[in-house]
Amino acid sequence: MTLPVVFESNEFVVLDKPDGLSFHSEQQPGLVVLAERQLNQTLYPVHRLDKMTSGLVIMAKTDQVARQFQQMFEQRLIEKYYLAISTHKPKKKQGWVKGDMVASRRGSWRLSVGMMNPAITQFISLASQPGERFFLVKPHTGKTHQIRVALKSLGAPIAGDIRYQLVADAMQEERGYLHAFALRFSLNNHQFEFVLAPSSGQRFLANSTFLTAQRWAEPWMHF
Prior knowledge:
Largest sheet: 10 strands, mixed
Protein name: RNA pseudouridine synthase
Family: Belongs to the pseudouridine synthase RluA family.
Number of domains: 1
Number of helices: 6
Radius of gyration: 17 Å
GO molecular function, one term: catalytic activity, acting on RNA
């Protein structure tokens, strides 16, 4: 498998992660191993995407740059934007989802009313194909399964999400419809902006969905 390289410098590389590829190696080589083989060098992941999620991933080329990125993530200096599709109508069409993440069964999470260390997610949405809702999501924190749980809490689980959608419904989908769409940050006095449309999944590739994504081509303008 050849991974699409979106951007590469002496400091870091931005890759387009395919959906269905594990970040770390399981039975098969994961994203990190494949990227290191392809680029023939050690890479330092500074954030991760779930197996079902496609899209933009940053990997540093040195430990020093990795530490810079990690500090930037901790200080919320890196803006992240995601696209998602649900086949359910959300309780609200835009706004915020806030609450503590509580461990549930078998590696799942749920949203609670507590606010001790809340996951904070901002979103807007539009009607897309018949029976679909198309979301542009900006997570302000970086919790495990944060967006997946946030949309589930709105009554609109992500299509194809076997963990948070009804399994019978999720199994009908060719992929989980969550995509890391855009990144924006400043590193060493240089401003970087990356926007990448999804390249797989019939629901993502549908004409009306792509037209909506083009409307969101500068997602930071909508929040």
